[in-house]
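Researcher: Hi, I'm a grad student and pretty new to this. My advisor asked me to get structures for two proteins we've been looking at. I'm not sure of the right format, so I'll just paste the first sequence and hope you can take it from there.
Model: That works fine. Here's the first sequence with its structure tokens right after it:
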Amino acid sequence: MKVTIITVVFNGAGTVRDSIESVLNQTHADIEYIVIDGNSTDNTAEVVRSYGSRITRFVSEPDKGLYDAINKGIRLATGDVIGLINADDFYHHSQVVEKVVQLFEKTNCDAVYGDVIYVNAENTQKIDRYWKVGEYKEGAFLWGWMPPHPTCFIRRSVYEKLGGYTLELKSSSDYELLLRYIHKHKIKLSYLPEVLVTMRSGGMSNATLKHRWRANREDRMGWKLNGLRPYFFTLFLKPLRKLDQLLPKL
């Protein structure tokens, strides 16, 4: 099974090397690796080009933001399955893709997801949160559930059939896409119960109360775009679920 991994980056010279190395160190033999750069003004392009032909495709040009860049990568992808690893994140170990492929082949599912750990942005050995997702149950989105977007590996045929990321939303396009695929169209999911991705803490949807309020409004718009109606408490439960991810300070 051929797997396409896409990394989207803009001015990420300080972190993108970790992402790239984590992909290139994967044990699965058939990986197509695409890096989409939004015309960075730092030395991101130089870092990416230093890996030469080990990166299958590198595009560096202006875009309309993160989700436009992801859509661009998806259009270039030729793999049976597509995974996304952002320039601030990296795969937790070298067998992630291999284990994901094994689960696809075993269950014949449409998508695989797993767990995440969040680490300190300056010290990646310091764990801030552990997101143990658990098995999906139908209707879980109504109770504030969603899988960690960076751990989602989705068949290319699903993207082709159900469409890519909407550019109408700035920070919740990943939520809308997963809501559309899983809750509305009921694609078949398989859960790999282990940490797949290490993420640096932060992110535009959680950085400030203002951004969280905007994300909440965009989440609601995601339901509306799909002709769906959440419970009145659904979108308040979504951020509250993060309380379960906090680790005790040792």
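Researcher: Oh nice, that was easy. Here's the second one.
Model: And its structure:
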Amino acid sequence: MAHDAPPSLTRRAALAALLMAGASALGTAMIPTRRMADRRGPFKLADAVPASFRGWTLDNRARGMVVNPQTEAMLRRLYTETLERTYLRGPGERVMLSIAYGADQSDVSLQMHYPEVCYPAQGFQLNNRREDVLDLPMGRLPVRRLETVFSTVRHEPVTYWTVIGDELTMSGLDKRLAEIRHGLQGEIVDGMLVRVSSIDANTANAFSLQDQFIRDLLISLQPADRRRLTALP
């Protein structure tokens, strides 16, 4: 014959069930549901980045120069929008620009791919990596420098930075903290990766040219577009 559970045990079981239900509801309520990209409004990289500025002009003949290990189908899945251009200025002054924008950084499978992964995936050797800061009229821009080489022939120094939401981030921890801060406000962050490179065996010369290109580009952008690409005013 079955015996009824003591009243105290029944109450504890009911309280435990109530607490679990509350924790589940709280966890669901804390899951971000609003995309930061939607709040910010429409944004087109091709419209934001000018085709010519401060002596730099597009090199429309330079096809296939920008390193990109992903197929077009993969790019469409990973990023909301990408922009790949090559710019010319004086003799021998050629800089490649690659920008990848993702409106949703909450899904690990959709998060941006960093140059440290992209270049080796294309057969490049990564010889050096370091942090640096560019002093610009609108503020200080933290960047990462890479020295890459393909088959001892193509030396391609790289400068890049990333923006998560409205914050510059240069590490996985910075990125995660930015995601958490926005997530606590119910927002799904977007992400931007801006990469500048040039083919030059003289690394110091390459980085100097890239710095000048970055300054010229950012000065030429509209303030709202510059904030999206750099989180700087």
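Researcher: Is there anything I should tell my advisor about the second?
Model: You could mention this: The first strand starts at residue 34 and ends at 35.
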